[in-house]
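Per your request, structure below.
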């Protein structure tokens, strides 16, 4: 059976299973995102369904009532299925791509409904916001965090410009950490697995007094590589991450809650090097057998091995003024530093390489006041962020004129906003919601680009004897300065058709601020100084969404669906292009070019469902479809929209998960044994806006399974987990520089192969 027939067969089966689970077919096929709750145990199957509470609108609401496309993952579900990090959620999320960025273990690339960003350089903002306890994390470095000490994770789809602000035009991902317990609580989780995996997480908290509690979590995640560096003998695709979190909670009275927390993590994994998809132009170096192997020779940047280190601290003050009014303050500061040796050519010689340093810092302050009345509920506030993103790197280029191209980008961002969002109950069955946010986003940047002779690097990156050949760009923060302002409104209408069906329609806008390409090459691209100083324009999106949230048979069957339509303008497309800077007709350099693609049209459908077939057997599933097309994409005065595609946005994705529970006593304890099997499908995916047969990934499927025993008192859990049991090889990212250097560089990065792990969790 060929790939196309297998895909069609799987999609038919998935859709049929979901319709059986839901017990209904809607004429329009409208649906809305549904939380994936853990399988019901035998002991709890006959109980009333638990209400899933989310904070998608910055206030606690039932998932089935909130008019937002949101999926929530509970800590119990994450534990049962051994989801290692945020990337592991993707298989069960509609229209969502999240992955480690090219050549990294911990930098996040995220796309939701076709909107996102995969370049982590200074000045390029993500289109999907990442939040840790309502603190916005401005930069993607270190955002692929291992999941520990969380209460739940919420994934919001669609523009969130009203409540979450700029740079959330695709959606938002929220980590909600666990609050400290009123009694001493100690938890230990240990994991061993294939490829030498050894993970451990220790969490403890205790009350110091009637009003003060303190807690801490320590974590270590370690694994050998899936492949080897055949030149150095080092691991490739290994993992070595340490993390810690401290928190204190103070409740001087019943109306005041104060929480102070700090976290840190350090990734000391080896550099992740890509797999060459072509034979070397000059050396004729063959294509390797193992897609996880490499022959890269670049192992350090500025004398440092690969490392990503981040720290953060925050303070939450929540004062309940009365039964209806609550005032909240969120203050936070974060920093991260990354040393990134990126070997584009993945060969033993210096042909195309980039040792890089990234440094980011941010300070943010948010004040909120929320009102919760019988008829009206809402939240209003002000927000401020002061952030700096800095990077410098050499691009070591071999060729007729070997060069070290030094690039420095230093970008300051200062943004403030005022916002309000509220809902009013017009009757027992109808409510209307409205909100708006006004944002002022100021960006200043300094960009320096210099060419040095030879491939040993620049003085700024550790080669003091380098000889300057030419300066292409030297612009200061007084040259590159722009302010973008935008009002982003939202409207929605809810109709509670009956106790089991909630229908809504919403209209919302979002935007992502403009900026400056930190790699701009004024000489190489012959860009005018005026255009360079103008930078690129803000992105804007407008989305209409129709949703239906339903439950049947006293909550044993739940279906959520959404149908959405988006107009997307001034899409920011950063990229690197090869250029001929000496006029000999051959590419001998590269340039950063950021294009505003003009216009795009996005429309799609999402369906999630769960069904408790019997007290022991449960089905859940997801199906999503998206049709995203550029309608205007101007390059050199020519509209090439028909030749462009949306990157990291497969047309279809689907998941079907089945679980079965048995009562089983072990080691003198009552408990439940659960068998969980999950099959997911992702359609063909383009890595960039221009299709490339070598780099693009065909449709593929993954199969995961877990066998988990949980004691009735929830104090002990043991599990055996298999991921990608079919050992499918699939590309998740890549680099494409076929004309640069003497060897040419087209490399790919792959998702994890088959892994098996055993986990034990104990709560003392």
């Amino acid at each position: 059976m060929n790939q196309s027939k297998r895909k069609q067969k799987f999609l038919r089966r998935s859709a049929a299973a979901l319709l059986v689970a839901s017990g209904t077919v809607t004429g329009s096929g409208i649906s809305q995102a549904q939380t994936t709750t853990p399988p019901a145990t035998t002991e709890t199957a006959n109980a009333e369904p638990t209400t899933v509470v989310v904070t998608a609108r910055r206030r606690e609401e039932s998932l089935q009532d909130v008019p937002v496309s949101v999926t929530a993952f509970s800590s119990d579900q994450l534990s049962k299925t051994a989801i290692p990090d945020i990337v592991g959620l993707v298989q069960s999320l509609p229209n969502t791509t999240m992955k480690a960025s090219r050549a990294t273990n911990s930098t996040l690339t995220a796309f939701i409904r076709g909107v996102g960003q995969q370049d982590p350089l200074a000045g390029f903002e993500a289109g999907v916001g990442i939040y840790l306890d309502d603190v916005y994390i401005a930069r993607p470095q270190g955002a692929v965090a291992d999941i520990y000490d969380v209460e739940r994770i919420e994934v919001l789809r669609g523009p969130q410009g009203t409540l979450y602000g700029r740079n959330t035009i695709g959606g938002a991902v929220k980590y909600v950490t666990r609050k400290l317990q009123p009694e001493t609580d100690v938890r230990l989780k240990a994991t061993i697995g294939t490829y030498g995996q050894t993970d451990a997480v220790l969490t403890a908290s205790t009350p110091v007094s009637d009003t003060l509690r303190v807690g801490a979590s320590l974590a270590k995640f370690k694994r050998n590589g899936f492949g080897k560096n055949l030149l150095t003998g080092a691991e490739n695709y290994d993992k070595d991450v340490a993390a810690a979190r401290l928190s204190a909670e103070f409740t001087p009275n019943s109306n005041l809650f104060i929480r102070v927390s700090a976290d840190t993590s350090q990734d000391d994994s080896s550099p992740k090097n890509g797999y060459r998809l072509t034979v070397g132009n000059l050396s004729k170096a063959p294509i390797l057998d193992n897609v996880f192997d490499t022959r890269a020779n670049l192992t350090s940047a500025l004398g440092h091995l690969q490392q990503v280190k981040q720290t953060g601290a925050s303070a939450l003050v929540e004062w309940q003024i009365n039964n209806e009014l609550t005032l909240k303050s969120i203050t936070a500061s974060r920093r991260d530093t990354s040393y990134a040796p990126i070997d584009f050519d993945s060969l033993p010689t210096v042909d195309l390489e980039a040792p890089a340093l990234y440094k980011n810092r941010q300070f943010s302050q948010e004040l909120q006041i929320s009102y919760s009345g019988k008829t009206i509920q809402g939240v209003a506030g002000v927000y401020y962020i002061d952030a700096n993103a800095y990077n410098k790197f050499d691009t070591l280029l071999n060729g007729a004129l070997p060069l070290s191209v030094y690039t420095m980008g230093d970008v300051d961002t200062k943004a403030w906003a005022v916002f309000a969002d509220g809902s009013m109950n017009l009757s027992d069955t109808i409510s209307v919601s409205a909100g708006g946010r006004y944002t002022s986003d100021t960006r200043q940047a300094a960009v320096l680009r210099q060419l040095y002779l030879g491939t040993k690097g620049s003085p700024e990156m550790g080669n003091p004897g380098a000889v300057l050949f030419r300066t292409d760009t030297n612009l200061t923060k007084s040259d590159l300065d722009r302010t973008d302002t935008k009002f982003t409104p939202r409207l929605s209408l809810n109709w509670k058709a009956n106790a089991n069906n909630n229908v809504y329609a919403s209209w919302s806008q979002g935007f992502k601020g403009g900026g400056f390409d930190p790699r701009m090459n004024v000489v190489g691209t012959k860009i005018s100084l005026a255009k360079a100083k103008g930078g690129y324009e803000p992105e804007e999106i407008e989305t209409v969404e129709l949703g239906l949230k339903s439950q049947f048979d006293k909550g044993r069957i739940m279906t959520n669906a959404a149908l959405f339509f988006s107009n997307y303008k001034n899409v920011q497309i950063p990229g690197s292009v090869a250029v001929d800077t000496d006029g000999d007709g051959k590419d001998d350099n590269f340039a950063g070019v950021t294009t505003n693609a003009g216009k795009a049209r996005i429309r799609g459908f999402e369906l999630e469902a769960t069904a408790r077939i019997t007290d022991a057997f449960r089905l859940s599933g997801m199906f999503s479809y998206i049709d995203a097309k550029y309608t205007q994409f101007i390059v050199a005065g020519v509209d090439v929209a028909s030749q462009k595609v949306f990157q990291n946005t497969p047309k279809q994705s689907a998941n079907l998960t089945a679980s079965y529970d048995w009562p089983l006593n072990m080691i003198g304890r009552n408990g439940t044994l659960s068998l969980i099997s999950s099959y997911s499908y992702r359609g063909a995916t383009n890595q960039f806006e221009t299709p490339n047969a070598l780099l693009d990934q065909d449709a593929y499927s993954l199969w995961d399974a877990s066998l988990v025993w949980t004691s009735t008192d929830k104090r002990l859990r043991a599990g055996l987990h298999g991921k990608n049991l079919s050992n499918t090889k699939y590309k998740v990212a890549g680099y494409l520089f076929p004309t640069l250097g003497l060897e040419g560089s087209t490399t790919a990065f792959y998702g994890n192969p088959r892994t098996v792990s055993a986990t034990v969790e104990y709560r003392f």
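Confidence is low (pLDDT under 50) at residues 1-49.

Regards,
D.
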